[in-house]
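Chain A, query sequence.
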Amino acid sequence: MLPFSLPGFEIQQIHYDKSILVITARALSPIAICPQCQQISHRVHSYYIRSPRDLPVSGQAVHLLLQVRRFRCQNRSCHQQTFAERLPMVVAHSARQTTRLSTTMTLFADGLSGQVG
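Chain A, predicted structure.
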């Protein structure tokens, strides 16, 4: 059991490797919404792995391996032929760190006036 949640994901594997906690998970939603035209799509185009940085847990670095999908837009008049599913509760689009890490870093930066953060 993890001390935090990954909303929208199903944990596939948790592996301890020296001082690194490796968490492998896959996205669950059967649909995604095209960011261009807002059309719902069920057609998966491909899969890929995102590995955003996250906060450490109990002194161990956390390495996330999140399997996410690219979908095909179902709207023939849309210029966005494929798009990646959005997972804002865990990681923002094209972000390299989790929402939890971003929020914590912002709090440190604000609290320390940006000097040490």
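The longest helix spans residues 99-111. Strands lie at 9-17, 20-27, 32-33, 40-41, 44-50, 61-72, 82-84.
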